[in-house]
Amino acid sequence: MNSWFLFLLKSTFILSLLYLFFRLLIRKESFFNHSRFVLVFIIFISAGIPFIHLPYNIRPVFPDKLESPFQERSIVEDSFLSNDTSVQIQSSAPIPSVKQAVDISVGSLVLYVYLAGVSISLLLFISSLYSVFLMIRKTHKRELNGVRILIVQDDIPAFSFGKYILISQYDFETNSKAILTHELSHIRQGHFYDLMLMTLVKIVYWFNPLVYFMNRDMKEIHEFQADEYTLNSGIDATQYQLLIIQKSVGYQKFALANSFNHCQIKNRITMMNKSKNSKLWNWKVATFLPVFVLLLMAFGKRGEGIIDKTSPLEPTVIVPDVAQKPIEHTNQIIELKNDGNYIDNKNCTPEQIALQAKEWRKAGNAWIHLLIDESIPLNRIDDVRDQLDGSYWVTQSTVNSDDIIYFAGDVNKLAEFKNGQWDNWINDQLNNYPEAKSLMQTKKYRISFSFIVEKNGKVRDAHVVKGSEYPEINSAYNKILAQIPDWEPALRRNDPVSVYWIYLSGNNW
Fold this sequence. Notes:
By secondary structure, the chain is α+β, with helices and mostly antiparallel strands. The chain is built from 16 helices and 18 strands. The protein is elongated.
């Protein structure tokens, strides 16, 4: 569900921004087919960009906002409850820039409100369909050029529905040529499918007010297209425009038409007489290209595209005393050796590591690789990661292994816990440590732990990174971490890979 809400946030922002550009630049242009295509394109691209994989040679547009999963401990937070205690765990996730609510009750409330809106929108749609079907049952049917004409005795505005045209008996007898030509245009140009798409968008994005403006603009474009088609078929323009006004205000009020502000009617008549400027149109459409690229680079999935192995942008690192092996992200390496931590063969203090990392970051490269001796204690690795203050994309490997350990945000598919829900499993294990659970109920605490899920699904290096002030809680977590069962491995470029996970747990934020 977290990934769904994340998708909603991204796609809503993309859709809203592109639609605002449409209203600013294109909405009043008379290239109706192109405008219709742009609106449909906006819908599909806003849903597609969050799933587009960017190759490594595409840098993020806003690197200070979209960094590693550990920037300022920028992690997705999963809250889960046992019967008598509350344990909050925050896990690293593939989209580091979005933070979700810690309290499950708030998340549940948001979910219920969203589903309620979807349900109401869906019921309104079903209700409108039902009303149309009831009307269809009371009509007299005729056929024209393969299209069914449904004649209604009541005085209703004519409209098309799928392959049907519904028209009042009076309009059929007096103005059938112009009205049927207009409605037949809607059918032949497939406007019904656009409206079905817009209905789906309104159901999914019911909370976005711009969606309703977009729906109105789509219908308006349909009317412009139908008007153009009708006039091109030989209908007199003046009589047709008078008919539009007449049908909009009613026959009894036709003389008072000037007293009303019929914005759509005014727009339709204006568009009928507006000339087309192809050069201006091309310039306006061209402005969408940089906006699209920026959105793609900001919200597309990074680090997941397939690129040429021989690309100079993907360096090969020469590791001393070890066979050459590819480090896919960077040649900025911190070596953790038994006698110290090294950068460019120079022994560095923790402070020097932090300074050098900042220099790398200023130079525009946020990827760092840790090359670790086999015997290095886990707490030393934790200390180096802590010096990087979570603002970098960190991979790691050992000098005697070609296996690269990626962070969770740099895989196509996250590792998945195979024994049910991960949070439920943790809670079940905590039930075996009543002293720790009692403290969790009554005391403020915070604890972080990490582990590596290997490409075969095995868990290793599971340990407490920063313990709480209560030894009972730390001891319970250490025992639980030693029992973590196998996971479904993460996938990167469709191949299993090892990933590094870090979690924060507690009730003191």
